[in-house]
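> call design_seq(struct)
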């Protein structure tokens, strides 16, 4: 979808509409003030390569006015420069201007002085109190100074403004008083100059919206839950018309707890958990499958925007007067790391691209080629689909479909059949040799698929009567990935699907493929695939490396080699074959033309002429109980990044340099990963980077939820087991 300053953006009860056409965007949250400015451009390129269309971000008040009247929009807090980078990247933006943000920030983002002023002068925050609104106005005005000229009407990226956050759900007023406050803030923002096509408000959990476009959320777990035990199954893995995640399966009725009329607004999400930010007392680990399965369920349930919080993790900045993270000491229910805001997001604290990134990218690939057409396919409940997530026996399924014209001029129902047999942290029943069929709202059969085993952990969706070109329809028991336009022989298109199990794929084609082809790959190949454009032609790259295209159109593959491997020969597969092998690569196997339902290897194989190497070492020594010296490489040694993986077992850890904390971590059972290049920028390059590590012991009986507890020695865990290094190399292929 091409959007420019002349574009008209609006919405109806179904979807966002751009210039009269329906639009299904992908959105991801990144907080500029939680990431080094030097790397913004690269990280935005990764987001775009991952399929993101819209960057959403908070302007966190305490990050910019920690001391009253002293505004800081410099360096990593430079909102103006971040907007410029977003514009250059080609991404769009939804700006979340608060004034209250939460975002696991101190006081929900309110500066300490504001709370002190309110207490001393006797007014409430988050309401229409005149003294409060005076402070908000100044903050809004300073924010506007940073973003002036970056609105869509100016040719800039900002297409939307979010007012407040979870207002009426987490603090603030409810009912008409709350609605009026939201209208007051919106009116103030518009008066100051915030002019965008869309004005949004979070709509879950009883939040009031002031008539703005409501956006919804859903997380695979709840690290803010005060319990330290396993919690009940998440309702976000159940197909339902319900948008309010904690009311799924409610006996009180559909939409209870929602303050707006769901029939008047499209189903848009802004806070699907791209991961989870762990707390001191609760530390669930969100996996790529957790996020991808939940995303597919929201897609099958009718969502027409998939937005992730967070999509990119980060690091809290240093405070001038205090720490800037959420703590119980400040009246909030959770203790969080002072600095780390990793979130196990698709892009993590140091820009790591891991399994969640790839699985969300796979869904994004489908959305970009098929999502706009999907928008007006309504959610249709299916016979036997359970209403409650505690039901681990029934087959969970949904359909989205619409009536359309077939190539022969007749009427046809076309759409998608969704199946989810995944429930995070719970085992689902296996359904062997299951019959799968899609039904309309009146019980009529729309499509039938080949019988298959649906086992615990499976989640997939199949198209029925999907157009392939202009003359054919296909019903296939494989999941769509993308279309490679002009990739086949004689300039025809190749439609890519994947199968989630090693089995023969069944397909029913009506009409004439007319030279277009269908290529079926494995799930693992699909997860590691990227659709890229090289010299104005579309290709599918499959590699363990992730493909990222910069704002100038150059594509690089991010290869990694660990200190355990020592060296590696970079390689990638490509369909169709490139006109020329990239510099530094040799063609080892030519591509063959994809045929109908091809399941063989039609990809060209390219291998690098030179290996990448990693002979770097890391050392650590315990100098006293819980205190260590850590010696890491002092420069990049030719790599683009070095990640130190610290295998430790304790409650938490801190790394410091010359007595100043530079990184921290709450133990989850995962390795603690730290990207080193930002510290070379900070401290300079040298032969070695000398750090101190301090561990807080984890003790038997501590009131903490961990999915896996470490081995206790003398009743506690407080040790480093080893440190490995992963060198990342960016290798250009176009």
């Amino acid at each position: 979808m091409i959007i420019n300053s002349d574009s008209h953006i609006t919405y109806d009860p179904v979807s966002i509409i751009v210039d009269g056409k329906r639009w299904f965007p992908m959105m991801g949250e990144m907080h500029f003030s939680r990431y080094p400015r030097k790397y913004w451009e690269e990280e935005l390129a990764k987001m775009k390569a991952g399929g993101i269309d819209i960057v959403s971000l908070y302007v966190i008040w305490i990050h910019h006015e920690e001391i009253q009247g002293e505004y800081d929009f410099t360096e990593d807090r430079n909102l103006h420069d971040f907007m410029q980078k977003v514009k250059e990247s080609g991404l769009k933006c939804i700006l979340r201007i608060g004034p209250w943000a939460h975002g696991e920030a101190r006081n929900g983002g309110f500066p300490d002085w504001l709370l002190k002023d309110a207490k001393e002068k006797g007014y409430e925050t988050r309401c229409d109190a005149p003294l409060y609104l005076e402070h908000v106005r100044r903050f809004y005005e300073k924010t506007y100074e940073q973003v002036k000229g970056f609105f869509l009407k100016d040719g800039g990226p900002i297409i939307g403004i979010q007012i407040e956050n979870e207002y009426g759900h987490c603090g603030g007023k409810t009912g008409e008083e709350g609605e009026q406050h939201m209208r007051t803030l919106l009116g103030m923002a518009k008066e100051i100059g915030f002019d965008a096509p869309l004005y949004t408000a979070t709509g879950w959990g009883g939040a009031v919206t002031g008539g703005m476009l409501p956006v919804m959320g859903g997380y695979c777990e709840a690290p803010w839950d005060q319990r330290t035990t396993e919690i009940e199954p998440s309702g976000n893995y159940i197909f339902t018309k319900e948008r309010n995640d904690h009311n799924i399966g409610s006996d009180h009725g559909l939409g209870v707890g929602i303050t707006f009329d769901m029939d008047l607004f499209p189903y848009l999400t802004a806070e699907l958990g791209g991961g989870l930010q762990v707390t001191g007392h609760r530390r669930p680990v969100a996996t790529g499958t957790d996020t991808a399965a939940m995303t597919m369920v929201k897609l099958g349930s009718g969502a027409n925007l998939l937005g992730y919080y967070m999509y990119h993790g980060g690091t809290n900045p240093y405070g001038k007067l205090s720490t800037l993270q959420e703590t119980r000491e400040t009246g909030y229910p959770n203790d969080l790391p002072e600095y780390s805001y990793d979130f196990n997001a698709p892009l993590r604290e140091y820009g790591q691209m891991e399994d969640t990134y790839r699985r969300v990218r796979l869904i994004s690939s489908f959305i970009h080629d098929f999502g706009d057409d999907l928008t007006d396919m309504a959610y249709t409940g299916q016979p036997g689909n359970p209403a409650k997530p505690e039901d681990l026996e029934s087959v969970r399924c949904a359909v989205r479909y619409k009536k359309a014209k077939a190539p022969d001029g007749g009427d046809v129902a076309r759409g998608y059949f969704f199946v989810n047999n995944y429930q995070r942290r719970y085992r689902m029943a296996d359904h062997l040799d299951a019959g799968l069929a899609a039904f309309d709202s009146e019980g009529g059969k729309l499509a039938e698929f080949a019988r298959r085993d649906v086992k615990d952990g499976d989640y997939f969706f199949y198209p029925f009567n999907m157009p392939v070109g202009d003359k054919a329809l296909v019903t296939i028991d494989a999941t769509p990935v993308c279309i490679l336009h002009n990739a086949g022989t004689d300039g025809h298109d190749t439609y890519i699907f994947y199968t989630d199990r090693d089995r023969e794929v069944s397909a029913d084609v009506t009409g004439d493929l007319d030279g277009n082809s269908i290529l079926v790959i494995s799930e693992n190949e699909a997860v590691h695939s990227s659709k890229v454009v090289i010299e104005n032609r579309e290709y599918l790259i499959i590699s363990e490396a992730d493909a990222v295209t910069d704002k100038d159109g150059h594509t690089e593959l991010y290869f990694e080699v660990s200190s355990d491997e020592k060296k590696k020969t970079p390689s990638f597969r490509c369909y169709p074959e490139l006109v020329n092998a990239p510099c530094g690569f040799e063609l080892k196997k030519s591509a063959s033309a994809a045929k109908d339902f091809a399941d063989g290897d039609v990809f060209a194989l390219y291998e690098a002429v030179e290996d990448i190497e990693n002979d770097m070492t890391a050392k650590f020594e315990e100098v006293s109980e819980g205190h260590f010296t850590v010696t890491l490489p002092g420069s990049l040694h030719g790599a683009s990044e070095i990640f130190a993986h610290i295998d430790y077992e304790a409650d938490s850890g801190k790394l410091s340099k010359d007595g100043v904390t530079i990184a921290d971590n709450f133990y989850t059972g995962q390795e603690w990963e730290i990207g080193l290049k930002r510290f070379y920028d900070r401290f300079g390059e040298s032969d070695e980077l000398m750090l101190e590590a301090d561990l807080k012991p984890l003790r038997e009986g501590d009131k903490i939820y961990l999915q896996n507890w470490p081995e206790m020695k003398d009743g506690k865990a407080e040790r480093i087991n080893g440190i490995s290094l992963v060198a990342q190399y960016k290798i250009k292929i176009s």
